[in-house]
Specification:
Elements: H1 24-57, E1 59-62, E2 68-71, H2 75-81, H3 84-116, H4 122-134, H5 137-147, H6 154-161, H7 175-201, H8 205-213, H9 218-229, H10 231-246, H11 250-255, H12 267-277, H13 281-315
Antiparallel strand pairs: 1-2
Helix pairs in contact: 1-13, 2-13, 3-7, 3-10, 4-7, 7-10, 10-13, 12-13
């Protein structure tokens, strides 16, 4: 027989010690004690700079007399609305986002399908595909600049050995923007692979087995089963990547510096040049906040449209 005391259903268990619960006020104070360091860091690094940037966008800053802020003006926003360079930089940013995000999703989806299957050496390829995402963006930009270098780059070196003319990848339009998009695709396609592969591994096996028993081809299975079931995670992956792509700054600064001329100047780079290079902090802040407003509107419209499309795909 066991040494444990027997119990009768419905009767209280004898010998059990009651669990001591901490007072509600003490529990809340302990929780705030753990959250306080995170809240302080978040406020210092995110909330306060954002509020200060918004205040600067409605102010005139005189750097010649120290940091003197004169709030209460709409001159910066009136200038932004009529600033042709801002709208040109925004169009460059939108074109970059469209080319990069669409290419990264299509490549990520195809590579995730390959890695999803039991290929020989699949684990090794997964690690290799994720390496670009582990590198610093500045390092990737410098690697891209060396790759496109007209004098010592391997790309023009191959063209020279083949007897073909050297291409000025970073100093001619539209090759400069396309070259930046290619570098971004190499860096961020692993992000799409990671999310989509995780979604594929979570798919129910019953649906795929039923399609296989019905004699569905591989393309039919992808078109009518895998792609619709991955629609929610695809929407979130594209949204996250799109928001990040709108902030493109470092690669363009290192690869082309916004050139030739201003043909590859993104909105973030234009705000940087205006605020820090030209010391116009107020208008540079307005440009940054304006870009934030544009990204927010694009994200809201994208989510509204994608929800209808996902609902339609899942119901058909």
């Amino acid at each position: 027989m066991s040494g444990r005391p027997s119990t009768v259903q419905g009767a209280p268990v004898t010998g059990a010690r009651p669990i001591a619960l901490a007072p509600r006020g003490l529990s809340q104070r302990g929780g705030w004690g753990f959250l306080l360091p995170t809240v302080v860091v978040l406020f210092a690094l995110t909330i306060f700079p954002f509020i200060f940037t918004v205040v600067l966008s409605f102010s005139n800053v005189d750097l010649t007399a120290g940091l003197q802020v004169q709030p209460g003006t709409l001159d910066n926003w009136q200038q932004l609305v009529s600033d042709a360079q801002f709208w040109a930089s925004l169009s460059v940013t939108v074109i970059f986002v469209a080319l990069a995000v669409i290419s990264e999703y299509l490549l990520g989806f195809g590579l995730a399908l390959l890695l999803w299957r039991d290929l020989r050496g699949g684990a090794l390829f997964r690690v290799l595909f994720l390496i670009p995402m582990m590198l610093a963006p500045v390092a990737i930009a410098f690697m891209g600049r060396m790759f496109y270098d007209e004098s010592y780059g391997p790309l023009d070196g191959v063209l020279h050995h083949l007897g073909l003319p050297i291409v000025h990848w970073l100093s001619t339009s539209p090759l400069a923007l396309i070259s930046i998009v290619i570098v971004d695709i190499w860096e961020w396609t692993p992000f799409m692979i990671l999310l989509l592969l995780a979604g594929m591994q979570a798919l129910p096996a019953e649906c795929l087995e039923a399609a296989q028993l019905d004699g569905a081809s591989g393309w039919t299975t992808i078109r009518y089963i895998i792609f619709p079931m991955l629609a929610p995670i695809s929407v979130m992956a594209i949204l996250l990547r799109m928001i990040e792509a709108f902030k493109i700054f470092g690669p363009i600064l290192i690869l082309t510096g916004g050139g030739p001329g201003t043909l590859t100047t993104s909105s973030s780079l234009y705000a940087y040049f205006t605020g820090l290079n030209n010391f116009n902090l107020s208008y540079g802040s307005s440009l940054a906040v304006g870009l934030l407003i544009v990204v927010t509107i694009v994200a809201i419209v994208y989510l509204a449209i994608s929800r209808r499309l996902v609902a339609r795909v899942l119901t058909t």
